[in-house]
Amino acid sequence: MSIKEFREAFSEQYSGLVASGEFAATDYDRLMSDDAYCNCFAGAARAGNLEARLQLAEACLRWRCQDQISGLTEADFPLEALQKGSVFFHSEDREGHPILYFRIQDSGKTSPDELLQIRQFIGWLLDSRHRRQPEQKISLLFDMTNAGVANLNLDLVRFVVRAFQVYYPGLLGYLFVYEMPWVLTAAWKVIRSWLDKEAQKKIIFLKRSNVQEYIAPDKLWVHMGGTDDYQYEYSPGMLTGDTAEYPTSGDECGDVEFVDAENSMQVSLPPNDADAVSLDGSQTQTSQRSFKIRSPAASSASVGSSSYIGRYMSISPADQVTFRLATAGNNNSSDSQRTITLTSTWQQSALAYKVKTTCPADYRVKPSVGLLEPGASVCVVVTYRPSSTPPSQPPARSDKLQLLAAPVESGLSREACQEALKSAPSEALMEHRLRCRVETPKPAAGSAAAASGRLPDDQQLAALRSEVSRLSGMVSRLAVQQSQRLAYTKYSLWLLAFGVIFLAFLLGWSCGRQAASSSHAGPPHSTDL
Fold first, then answer.
1. What is d(CA 23, CA 64) in angstroms, rounded to the nearest whole number?
2. Long-range contacts of range 19-23, CB-CB < 8 Å, 24 or more positions apart?
3. Are 39 and 139 found together in one domain?
4. How far is CA 389 from the centre of its chain?
5. pLDDT tens figures, 290-340
6. For the residues 478-503, what does the mean pLDDT come to?
7. What is the pLDDT of the chain when averaged over all its residues?
8. Cα end-to-end distance, the chain, whole Å
9. What does the pLDDT read at residue 1?
């Protein structure tokens, strides 16, 4: 549809709303004269037919009139709000999109007047940037570091979502959500209901481990693992881009090819969604920890819940491969084999991939090198066969798998893919590592226990409780006996003491009588001699 046809249709249906005050005259005139602005709605591919595109433009002009966006200038906002630095432009993503940074920690409940002022501020920022660079897409970065439920203003998020879906269709590059707390997963489900399918494709949940896939280290904040130590400090003109906030030269971005925004960036829930907490504090259960990722070019290529979304492909599992060691009597080889699923999300060309390990003697990878066409998937089988440690013991070291991928031409052989990966510049390589965990499975109840002569755990517990009860009774009886013996001993001592005293009294009395008898008898007479 041409811009001329769109303007004629819009004027025919809505020109009367200017006189009624529902449209601002300046906004209507801009739509009729500014081709770049009009093309936002006339060329909105997601809107579909003409009527849907006209409704987008109508909703935008109504909002602009309601929030008085057209007449806003930097001087209309309090200096304190400008100096706070909760929302500002800085840096760019790997595709050169300027980043509009939101510090969610600074958000919270607001009054209607405060919310209106924030809406006006964001609208003014977007409008100023769009006037300067109408063809330049913008990426949003929601930094949720240290944020909690109290910091998430759903009214504000609803406005931001609507701004990029309705008021500025086609302006959004990506919406990056950094370090989404698991307690906000329930809130995200509410936000997701406001998004259409096209918008969902552009939302990327980031963590410190994968944020550099989308933002180069020198353009990334230090607290996110980058080297950019930028500290926000307000100066007039900086918010609208009159003061350069990021390099826009093509030389700054290098010659690296990046993923197509329309075909490969998919929606993924943050970890711990299975134990989500709703806004009222109650726990909710979900059947998956992430949305299924589906490539538009191949509807059959989907990835499960624990998937890593990289620049060129998605990898399942995301970060760890777990092997189980065989036990006595169990020769099931599937315990020592695991499958890694690679799904291409890069639609511009084929991909060469290679899987390496830190311990080739213990791990077999098939296929370790190969070619992946756009939208295709491949299953890489990793077999654990320890060469140095006993089969029943896990290795003491920490083994890892490394996956490399880079765009190449279609139809390359295995050897050509390997050479292409060796010669590819580091900027064009996607690298991801997975931990290898080896564990010994627990024996089944009644099998290994019976073989070793031990009772099952529940029977052992019952026997232990019985023994404790028996010992407790014995201790009680011994305590009673000890108390009785102590009382008997005291009684015996008292009797003994009384007996000793009585005997001493008798002995003293007897000695006294004998002495008295001797004194009355006197000395013997001489005649007796």
1. 8
2. 21/65, 22/62, 22/65, 23/61, 23/62, 23/65
3. no
4. 35
5. 333 333 333 323 333 467 888 888 898 888 888 876 654 444 444 578 889
6. 86
7. 77
8. 172
9. 67
Which one of 19, 48, 70 terminates a domain?
70
**CA distances, 55 to each of 20, 24, 59, 60, 167 (Å):** 18, 16, 6, 8, 11
Distance of alpha carbon 199 from alpha carbon 193, whole angstroms: 11
Query: Helix, strand or coil for residue 180?
Result: coil
Using CA atoms, how far apart are residues 468 and 504, in angstroms rounded to an integer? 53
**For residue 291, what pLDDT is reported?**
31
| Range 48-76 average pLDDT | 88
pLDDT at 197 over 70: yes
Last residue of a domain, one of 23, 51, 70: 70
DSSP strand E in 111-218: where? 138-143, 172-178, 203-206
Backbone angles phi, psi at 490, to 5 degrees: -60, -45
CA–CA gap between residue 212 and residue 93 (Å, rounded): 9
CA distances from 48 to 52, 57, 156, 274, 400 (A): 6, 13, 27, 36, 48
**Mean pLDDT value across residues 391-407:** 74
Task: Provide the pLDDT confidence category of residue 286 given band limits of 50, 70 and 90.
Answer: very low
Two tokens, residue 285: 């259960």
Lowest mean pLDDT among 56-70, 94-108, 237-251, 256-270: 256-270
Shared-domain flag, residues 78 and 226:
yes
Label the pairing between strands 172-178 and 138-143: parallel
Q: Give the mean pLDDT of 451-475.
A: 60
User: What digits encode the pLDDT tens for the residues 200-223?
Assistant: 888 899 999 999 999 999 999 999
- Tell me if 264 sits within 8 A of 286, measured CB to CB: no
Q: Determine, yes or no, domain membership for 508.
A: no
Structure tokens at 281: 């504090």
Structure tokens at 479: 């305590």
Contact 149, 182 (CB under 8 A): no
The two tokens of residue 483 are 């108390």
Tokens of 266: 């998919």
As a three-state string, the secondary structure of 241-297 is: CCCCCCCCCHHHHCCCCCCCCCCCCCCCCCCCHHHEECCCCCEECCCCCCCCEEECC
Tell me, yes or no, whether 298 and 273 share the same domain: no
Residue 306 shares a structural domain with residue 250: no
Q: Are 262 and 337 within one domain?
A: no
Amino acid identity for residue 315 in this structure: I
* Helix, strand, or coil (residue 150): helix
Q: Are 260 and 238 in contact (CB under 8 A)?
A: no
Angle (CA) 203-273-107 rounded to 5° is 60
Q: Which of 265-269, 311-315, 410-414, 466-470 has the lowest mean pLDDT?
A: 265-269
- Domain containing 36 equals 1-70
Give the lowest-confidence range in 104-108, 181-185, 276-280, 438-442. Answer: 276-280
